[in-house]
Amino acid sequence: MIAAPFLLYLGHSADALGIKTSRGLAAFRGEDCVGEFRHDDCPQTLGLPRMTMEEGVAAGARTLVLGIAGAGGKLPAELIADAQAALNAGLNVAAGLHERLRDQPALVALARERGLQLFDVRDPPRRLSVGKGTPRAGHRLLTVGTDCSVGKMYATLALTRALQARGVAADFRATGQTGILIAGAGVAVDAVVADFISGAIEQLAEARDDDGWDLIEGQGSLFHPSFAGVSLGLLHGAQPEALVLCHEPGRPHMRGIPGRALPGLGECLERNLEAARLTSPEVRAVGICLNTSGMEREPALRLCAATEDKLGLPCTDPVAFGVDAILDRLLCAAPSTLSTTASR
After folding, report:
1. What is the pLDDT of residues 28-40, one digit of tens each?
2. Cα 240 from Cα 152, distance rounded (Å)
3. What are the residues facing 6 on neighbouring strands?
4. Is pLDDT of 335 > 90?
5. What is the spatial order of strands in the sheet that 92-95 belongs to?
6. Do the bridges between strand 6-11 and strand 63-66 make them parallel or antiparallel, or are there none, so unpaired?
7. Which part of the chain is the D-glutamate N-acetyltransferase-like N-terminal domain (predicted)?
């Protein structure tokens, strides 16, 4: 387990999406976050106290979380220098980038010298099996998206917590670096060898017979040329009973690909359902989650209502307006796991 409390790293980030890991920890594990570290040229903030490494240690922080995501998951020189400063101040360092902390000899040597730890969150599990698509018991919901970074993790966490509040057994299954840091466990699916993606998700959300739900965090988008392979493997491995589509209104193009438009919601939902039917023939859509964080409340409510009318599914912003309508749809038509299992 990564030692908390955390000092959250923003560094030099100018991109709000680039600090999504730090932002997610502040939102869902705020009680474990003492402050944020950012350089003078960083316009971003999480609303936490700005601290130096030494101030973070004095406030009780035990780990600096490098909660940023740059192109290709690289560890640039300035990030390595800041990690060294954290170690010198007495902080462990955690990162979820594709380039590993443990592959930086200077960081490894310094951590050993100071008796501290380096945590690489994006390590895939060992001894994975290829997916089989064999029917398995249990209720599973998967979030899917029109693009990357549209709110799939936020929606999945909101649905999980709302189910738990209703007294329903529910578990959040993390598939990305931020979700793993929040949950303390999971599979960084984009670090898994392609042949094993669906199998990794089968192992992450195994069969269950308690009538509870596994809510699986989606990644990427079937419509994103860079990441569609991960999204498809998730769909097949999750074997979902239900899908929730996530979208950020007003996004001008697919993330990182100027000129490539996002798909329409109806088209995106149908393609995801079609792909999911390979391993879950009875899969159904139960709702739409919009990330309206860039909108005023009344226009956001009107957009949710219009989307609901157009697609015939409950539509909400899970952070701003809750997810009760989606849960009502999800639970009213969900067959009992126990009876389904018994019929096999």
Report:
1. 999 999 999 999 9
2. 15
3. 33, 63
4. no
5. 33-38, 6-11, 63-66, 92-95, 118-120
6. parallel
7. 44-124
Tokens 């966490």, residue located: 157
Closest by Cα among 132, 45, 124, 39 to 79:
39
**In the block, residue with structure tokens 């391993």:** 279
Domain annotation for the chain: domains and CATH numbers: 6-120 (3.40.50.720), 139-343 (3.40.50.300)
- CA 162 to each of CA 78, 156, 165, 291, 316: distance values in angstroms, whole numbers, following the listed order: 40, 10, 5, 18, 14
Q: What is the DSSP string of 291-342?
A: --TTS-HHHHHHHHHHHHHHHTS-EE-TTTT-SHHHHHHHHHTPPPHHHHHH
pLDDT band at 342 (very low <50, low <70, confident <90, very high): very low
Q: Which two tokens stand for residue 258?
A: 């100027």
Helix (H, G, I), strand (E, B) or coil at 109: helix
State the DSSP code for 217.
Answer: P
pLDDT value of position 127: 85
Distance separating alpha carbons of residues 74 and 102, to the nearest angstrom: 13
Radius of gyration for the alpha carbons in the chain, expressed in angstroms and rounded: 20
105 cis-preceded (ω within 30 degrees of 0): no
Query: What pTM value is reported for the model?
Result: 0.88
Residues with Cβ within 8 Å of residue 80, at least 6 apart in sequence: 104, 106, 107
Vertex 24 angle, CA 18 and 30, to 5°: 135
Q: Coil, strand or helix: which one is 213? A: strand
Which of 131, 139, 161 lies closest to 214, judged by CA? 139
Question: Can you tell me which residue has the tokens 């955690």?
Answer: 94
Helix 152-165 × helix 324-332 angle, to 10°: 70
How far is 117 from 142, CA to CA, in rounded Å? 33
